[in-house]
Amino acid sequence: MESLKSMIQTEGKVLSNEVLKVDSFLNHQIDPVLMKEMGEEFARRFEKEKITKILTIESSGIAPSLMAALKLDVPLIFARKRQSLTLTENLYTADVHSFTKGVTSKIAVAMPFIDRNDRVLIIDDFLANGQAALGLLDISRQAGAEVAGIGIVIEKAFQPGGNDLRQQGVRVESLARIQSLEDGRVVFKEEVSV
Ligand code: 5GP
């Protein structure tokens, strides 16, 4: 998606060979026009899939997911990372190791919100080692739901998550795929000549 790629080039800060900071439009301040465009693009790619629910993880997955949910006219559920006194139903849970924070935490979705009749589209902001996506897949499967695919805003294709998921037969659609963050430069996958 060209508008996203040019936003990454102008606004993204390469923190290391592995980490990209996009706090000015996705992870802290949010660009609503870009979110709307991204939501529409996810909806376009999965429009034939008879999606009934979108599942993401708080907090940065929520903005693009909400726009996709609006376009597909389905509810959005975000897995909670923190214990909450109001989250009292029976829960589906999964352990997720955070690539950026280096800690493992439990994510949870209340049982009434997903069931065996659902066809779920999972969406997240970044795909690195695939831990967050695997946790959301695990929760969907515990609920007996079918997962139609995974939509990712920024896939770091030099990390193994995307390939691992595709090798498991999961459809992964990424709006921008980064080949490398070396030397402080963002290189997208399409730009690499083979
Ligand atoms: P994974 O679970 O695929 O290893 O990592 C994905 C999660 O880690 C995303 O939900 C995102 O919050 C975070 N993440 C991974 N890599 C990056 C990165 O380069 N930049 C930012 N801002 N977040 C990242």
Descriptive overview:
It is built from 6 helices and 10 strands; from the N terminus they run αββααβαββββαβαββ. Helices cover 30% and strands 30% of the residues. It is globular. The strands form 3 sheets. Strands 4-3-7-8-9-10 form a 6-stranded mixed β-sheet, sandwiched between helices. A two-stranded antiparallel ribbon has the order 1-2. A hairpin with a 6-residue loop joins β9 and β10. The longest helix is centred in the first third of the chain and has 14 residues. With 194 residues, it is of the alpha/beta class. The two termini are 21 Å apart. It has a single domain, classed as 3-Layer(aba) Sandwich (Rossmann fold), CATH 3.40.50.2020. The structure holds guanosine-5'-monophosphate. The site of guanosine-5'-monophosphate has 20 residues, from β2, β7 and α5. Guanosine-5'-monophosphate binds next to β2, β7 and α5.
SSE layout:
Layout: H1 2-11, E1 13-14, E2 20-21, H2 23-27, H3 32-45, E3 53-57, H4 62-72, E4 76-79, E5 91-97, E6 104-110, E7 119-127, H5 131-142, E8 146-156, H6 161-167, E9 172-180, E10 187-188
Parallel strand pairs: 3-4, 3-7, 7-8, 8-9
Antiparallel strand pairs: 1-2, 5-6, 9-10
Helix pairs in contact: 3-4
The protein binds guanosine-5'-monophosphate.
Guanosine-5'-monophosphate (5GP) binds next to strand 2, strand 7 and helix 5.
